[in-house]
Amino acid sequence: MTDQLGGKPDPRGGIPDLDNVDIDSLPRFPDDPLVEYYTPMMSGAWTLAQVPFSICMGYWTGLQQVYRMPILMRRQNVWMSLSPMETESQQIGVDLAKGHVAIFGLGMGWVAGMTAMQPDVERVTVVEMDEDVLAMHRQLQLFERLPDGIGTKIEIVEADALEWKPDSHVDLLMPDIWLDMVSWERPEEVREMQDNVRADSVYFWGQELELARHLVRDGRPIDDAGIAETAARWDLPLIGLDTPDYAARTHTAARQWMKGRWLEGTAVPDDLRSEADDLEDV
To answer: Would residue 10 count as lying in a domain?
Structure first.
């Protein structure tokens, strides 16, 4: 996750410039259903903490006031939080989940917990290989404390996400193993995972940004047709593409979160440019 918790405004990070922002007028981000389940703790290089108050940009919404935000840090890097950006960028996959769902990357367990709460979900398999993260969850007991025994749907498997193969049919694969929202060759990595899993559908973290930067590099608009063709070219059964305003939301997410990380050779159109696009590499 790109750090957006405070400090000097950073065009290439998620720290917003608040000089001309009326903070009191910003909407308050609703309390997350799982916020009460996160207890501050440490496990190896990982720290689970809570930020009392912060101003955060949503994935495709604007700036918001966020109170009591749990965060997961590995040394100095924030790997996950219950910020608007984090939850909005996973919500489509959670909402469309059904049957047997495979989640790659345990993190704070938010995606697994929220997915298990979906009435059409029967089973959630979480693949994680970091021993300290696994130890943290044994201490946290998040899934065991979920209401109505929902946590019994969830099984954690210690394995490598690029090698794991399921023992039964998977309806949805949701990979989230990356620190940042944009990384090189992410579609290829997801393709490698899908070759092993053979899920009916896939929703990977940051897929909107990947769709956008491939379309823009090719000189194409971010529209429904281009999105569908790009997903087909990747040979990935991506879901969420037919959700309301998906192309418009993808455009907004790219404008707010690409932050200069376009593919080589991209001529960035003015309506997608950010301050980061004008910075020189150092």
So the answer is: no
Residue 233 identity = R
C-alpha distances (whole Å) from 189 to each of 94, 194, 262, 267 are: 21, 9, 18, 25
Verify that 138 and 259 share a domain, yes or no.
yes
pLDDT in tens, 158-199: 999 999 999 999 999 999 999 999 999 999 999 999 999 999
**pLDDT over 90 at 249, yes or no:** yes
113 and 190 both lie in a single domain: yes
Give the tens place of pLDDT for each residue, 90-146.
999 999 999 999 999 999 999 999 999 999 999 999 999 999 999 999 999 999 999
Q: Check whether residue 254 and residue 270 sit in a common domain.
A: yes
Q: Which residues of 63-90 are buried (b: 16+ CB within 10 A; e: fewer)?
A: bbebeebbbbbbeeebbbbbbbbbbbbb
Domain span at residue 264 reads 87-278
- 219 and 245 belong to one structural domain: yes
The strands making up 77-81's β-sheet, listed across from edge to edge, are: 41-43, 46-57, 63-74, 77-81
Say if residue 41 is in the same domain as residue 155.
Answer: no
Give the predicted TM-score (pTM) of the model.
0.94
Residues 98, 59 share a domain: no
| Cβ count within 10 A of residue 214 | 21
